[in-house]
Amino acid sequence: MFGFIHESIRQLMIRTYGEAFWAKVLERAGFEAGKENIINHYYSDQDTYTLVDAVSVILKVTREQVWEMYGCFLIQYTMETGWDDLIRSMSPNLKGFLDNLDSLHYFIDHVVYKANLRGPSFRCEDNPDGTITLHYYTGRPGLYPIVKGVLREAAKRVFKLDVSMSITGRTQRSVQMATGERIEEHVIFLIKTQNTDQSNEDALGTALVQHTNNYKIRLTHMDFVSTFPYHMVVDQDCKIVQVGKEL
């Protein structure tokens, strides 16, 4: 994983538990101090898992609890380090924010770091009761608690919402890649609002916009062919029935 992940883990642990605690983590994980958080260095996934496992053992909590704690901190740290405006401008509601997560990861991978970091992928579904079903796909099994932490904290910080996230499904499959076999994980979350007078639809941004057909296009035929001078319209028999004025 990219060094930014290691540095943000380090920041979380030092801010929460102090420098001495982090020194114990490094000792248990077998890292030399100062070599564990090089921002532009790409660490193996196993290096990252070793760090998190060391934190888990010393704190006497599960690895999943550490990842979720990290997810909550990650959105805070990301916004502190210059990404605040971008994150807040992604969408006016949580549903739109989730829909744009793939684009955000693509931007980070290919534009900011110019690397192929194997980021996760997300898909949203609107439910009839206004809740959201979120599909999370990743080639790194076991990291789904990060998603819970990130989204709950993002909902609070960006949209002033308190949301609950429950896992309704989790599957894994083996995929043959050019570089060998890898495990892909698919986790399904159900997202609901909590402690709000708004409905799920209004709070999460899943409310349907009602469209009516009682409108009139105020554009004449001549205006249309002038506005779109190079257009062409054909009928179901592929006969040309209209062209722009320049054709």
Automatic annotation (TrEMBL):
Biological process terms in GO annotation: cGMP-mediated signaling; response to oxygen levels
Keyword ATP-binding: no
Catalysed reaction, written as an equation: GTP = 3',5'-cyclic GMP + diphosphate
Span of domain Haem NO binding associated: 218-247
Record domain Heme NO-binding: where: 3-166
The protein's enzyme class: lyase
Listed EC numbers: 4.6.1.2
Keywords assigned: cGMP biosynthesis, Metal-binding, Nucleotide-binding
Pfam families membership: HNOB (PF07700), HNOBA (PF07701)
Gene Ontology CC terms: guanylate cyclase complex, soluble
Gene Ontology MF, one: guanylate cyclase activity
InterPro entries: H-NOX_domain_sf, Heme_NO-bd, HNOB_dom_associated, HNOB_dom_associated_sf, NO_sig/Golgi_transp_ligand-bd
This protein's name: guanylate cyclase
Upper lineage: Eukaryota, Metazoa, Ecdysozoa, Nematoda, Chromadorea
SUPFAM superfamilies, per database record: Ligand-binding domain in the NO signalling and Golgi transport (SSF111126)
Organism the protein comes from: Caenorhabditis tropicalis
